[in-house]
UniProtKB/TrEMBL annotation:
CDD domains: HU. Keywords: DNA condensation, DNA-binding. The lineage of its organism: Bacteria, Bacillati, Bacillota, Tissierellia, Tissierellales. Signal peptide: none annotated. Coiled coil: none annotated. Belongs to the bacterial histone-like protein family. SUPFAM superfamilies: IHF-like DNA-binding proteins. It comes from Citroniella saccharovorans. This is HU family DNA-binding protein. Pfam families: Bac_DNA_binding.
Length: 99
């Protein structure tokens, strides 16, 4: 599902126009981005948690030349951890497909 398809679904389920849905989705995304940039997390009970994690500097291998060792600098990465309800919903949907 791409952003356009997501906006159509949001509009359909919320009885909002696509323009209103886009404004709401963009506001959500901007808010999550701003919050993570401050080092805080966004926790949506049952759905999941958006947070940022620090990655230490480390050594890696150049994929084009595996003998070459490269230094990977420290960074901060955004991560999403699914909540219990979301995990259960996805697992149930997949287990039904397998039958």
């Amino acid at each position: 599902m791409n952003k356009s398809e997501l906006l159509s679904k949001i509009a359909e389920k919320s009885n909002l126009t696509k323009v209103e849905s886009e404004r709401a989705l963009n506001a959500f995304l901007e808010t999550v981005e701003e919050t993570l940039s401050k080092g805080e997390k966004v926790q949506l009970v049952g759905f999941g948690t958006f947070e940022s994690r620090e990655r230490k500097a480390r050594e890696g291998r150049n994929p084009r030349n595996p003998e070459e060792v490269i230094k990977i600098p420290a960074s901060v990465a955004p991560v999403f951890k699914a909540g219990k309800s979301l995990k259960e919903s996805v697992n149930n949907a997949h287990s039904k497909k397998k039958k």
